[in-house]
Amino acid sequence: MLAALTERMRPEAEVMDLQRLGSLHSSTLSFMRTLVRRIMKEEWDISRRLFDLDPEGYGTAIYEIRTPNGVFSFVLFSTELPDEERNDRVIATSWDLTMALCEGLVDEVWLEDLRRNVPKQEAGRVDARVFSLSRANRSSRLFSYVLEELSAGRQPDAQRIAEVGYLYRTTAVYGSGKLGMADWNKVRAKFPDFNRPFAPEMFICFMLRQFSLDQVDHVAKSRAPDTAVLLDGRLKRFFGIGNSTGLGMAPYLINHGELFSQWVEMRETALAQVLHKAAPTAWRISLFHDLVSRAKQHFGESHTSDAEQIDRNQVLIAELSEVDSWLAGTGDQLTTWSELTDHARDVWSLETQELVNSICLEIHPELVNDLEDSFAVIPNPVIDPAMSTAALRQLIETRYGWALEIDFSDATETDAFWYRSEEKLEPRLGFAGADPGVEKQMPLPIGRRVRECYDLLIQDLAENPGSDVVHFLLRRPAMKSIVRRIQTMSRHKYAEIRANLASRDIRPMDMLRCKLAFFGVSKFDPRSKLWVRNTMYQGAPLIEDIGQTYDSWFLPLKPQMEEVRA
Asked: How far is the CA of 174 from the CAs of 40, 106, 127, 180, 528, in angstroms?
């Protein structure tokens, strides 16, 4: 795989630092972007087959999706939900909208079965013809405002939209075999339209956005048939879908280490190609300046009440001006883009460094976008029983030296523990001495487990210097899973997140942000270090845009709508 570039890719110690991972931004290779490119390129035919909504927007909708490889149905149930029952937490049991992405066409019998189960979410069950489920809650104030304006014959104010960014936000999207759905192996093998990581989940959110816009138009027209206007297309594209992401997502990057390593490696491969092979011609440097200006406006339009995120956004905007000035100071002359990124590494924040990387990727789609089919991997965790314990020790010292440097005798380095809540079986973060459940903790702190294995290995080598892994594990069977992980992950270039997940100072937010950046979300709004709101698909094309030329929706901006205001 592009072996000539391997040595020019950034080192694991730099890339897998958790603080850097928590500074990533979306890019042209993010999963939403690759999905929308496929939809547009292949000209998927998406139409409303059923739109049985009452005047207030409650009822059932089915959208039919025809791709080059098959037919699918997006089924949605809209129900009236009192404001006091609207809850974004995973413990909620009812929602404004619930939905399913299904194989083939849905007949009346199947629809009734879906109607009995989909609104229950975790309490319901579906079959393997379904491969994604989700639910969403309304952003009540913005929905009401938009509805009032449209009903009165006016377009809503773009600034009011920018302050929220969506009419609905989803609190969970399920797939990969959960609740009876098709597992990933079936989806990957049988449905080439959705064979990229999280493609079904990303598509169900794309369709949720479409429904939210169709619904508000429908309700406005029902309430005021003589005066209502349809939402302007520019505003429609500026609406995204909100997302609330908490700790449930954080362990994924640890538990799916081989897959995550593949994601990172593909992004780093693309970046190495751009930084070291691409020619920064005059028009591409001009485009870089344009995207920097766009980024400053984008982050200036981002709204958050989190003091740290406000500061990060302000620093980013200020440093982007410095990026522009530095590049202009070279006479807009670069031999390679790496000259810029090397300078960025020396003088600017991680946030700015990683945004510069994303912009560089954006400028060279011809070197990047062909990698979009390389993000999937079939995990193959295996133990090499014949490896000598001396070789295993060397492997740990070489690939896990970061873990051996942590002082686990310091109580602050072992304070935190991860467990699953009894109520929803969702991951939670506790602290020794303050929270119960330490005896049931999840084995997520890889660094601590590696250290424990290493210490036992040193002791074993002193007693059995010529031994091998299989005999070590016979003597220390509790070490089997971590030895398997060490051997498996050491086959990958970007093997482990270099952070102590048992530390009192651990920031789960960095893991959340990293995964969401690979998804392609924007406008992070942390609510604590444990969960974050963000926006999906803002600026993306609508189904009415399919088949037309559509500009990139990287770093979406608030549309200028003054000329259409009443």
From this structure: 25, 20, 13, 11, 24
Contact 369, 28 (CB under 8 A): yes
Q: What is the pLDDT of residue 95?
A: 95
> Do 90 and 99 contact (CB within 8 A), yes or no?
no
Residue 455, C-beta contacts closer than 8 angstroms, at least 6 positions apart? none
Answer whether 126's CB lies under 8 Å from 179's CB: yes
Residue type at 562 in one-letter notation: E
Residue type at position 16? M
What secondary structure letter does DSSP report for 306?
Answer: -
Measure the CA–CA gap between 508 and 3, rounded to whole angstroms: 34
How far, CA to CA in Å, does 372 sit from each of 22, 243, 265, 275? 22, 24, 12, 18
Place of tokens 């990958």: 492
**Is the pTM here over 0.90, yes or no?**
yes
CA distance 206 to 199: 10
Name residue 486's amino acid.
Answer: I
Q: Give CA–CA dist 564/138, Å, rounded.
A: 26
Would you report the helix, strand and coil content of the chain in percent, each value rounded to 5? 50, 15, 35
Contact 350, 335 (CB under 8 A): no
Q: pLDDT (tens digit, 9 = 90+) per residue, 125-163?
A: 999 999 999 999 999 999 999 999 999 999 999 999 999
Which amino acid is located at 484 in the chain?
A: R
Rounded Cα distance between 448 and 482, Å, is: 10
136, 171 Cβ separation under 8 angstroms: yes
Residue 331 and residue 344: Cα distance in Å, rounded?
Answer: 17
Rounded-to-integer distance, Cα 63 and Cα 545, Å: 16
Residues 442-456 pLDDT 10s: 899 999 999 999 999
CB proximity list for 139: less than 8 A, separation 6 or greater: 164, 166, 167, 168, 169, 242
Tokens matching residue 393: 């020790």
505, two tokens: 């100072």
Structure tokens at 333: 């002359």
Tokens representing 177?
Answer: 């075999």
- Tokens linked to 515: 């995964």
Question: Distances from the Cα of 276 to the Cαs of 13, 273, 286, in angstroms?
Answer: 20, 6, 19
Indicate the pairing of strand 166-174 with strand 59-67.
unpaired
Which tokens go with 518? Answer: 């690979």
- In single-letter form, the type of residue at position 86 comes to R
386 and 473 in contact (C-beta within 8 Å)? no
Three-state SS annotation for 314-362 = HHHHHHHHHHHHHHHHCCCCCCCCHHHHHHHHHHCCHHHHHHHHHHHHH
Which amino acid, one-letter code, is at 434?
A
| For residue 90, pLDDT beyond 70 | no
